Amino acid sequence: xxxxxxxxxxxxxxxxxxxxxxxxxxxxxxxxxxxxxxxxxxxxxxxxxxxxxxxxxxxxxxxxxxxxxxxxxxxxxxxxxxxxxxxxxxxxxxxxxxxxxxxxxxxxxxxxxxxxxxxxxxxxxxxxxxxxxxxxxxxxxxxxxxxxxxxxxxxxxxxxxxxxxxxxxxxxxxxxxxxxxxxx
Length: 184
Fold this sequence. Notes:
4 helices; 7-stranded mixed beta sheet
């Protein structure tokens, strides 16, 4: 299973499971940049950056979907270093990014990468609303099947955003920070 290759990057995992027709899905967080080695036993400090609320979907040996939330577009090159071997034409990346002003689309190793500004919100909720899926669309499905349903809807999405290179977009990032709300 392709996702086993990335298991060392799984952080705060919700699930990793096989789905129908050779699909496998993961939800949780992904380490984008590891923390430095803290001691002689090789234990590491906490990650420097993670892809929050990450969703991965693979089918056989192909990475089909990567979605999640990045705090800074500047961390994207570290993400690419980790996943470059599997970012190919046919892979869809949807990354909600805190420090960008406008949504854009870029090609990364032939994969379609969509960057959308988001300072607060849940990745799963934003994606399902974007493609018009409702709770009933997931009724009776297992966790991996739900990710496959989301992927099928995202494949049909046009993403009518301007095409901009990631390098060019990095020149116009802002200082926005993630907004968290919850119990005090």
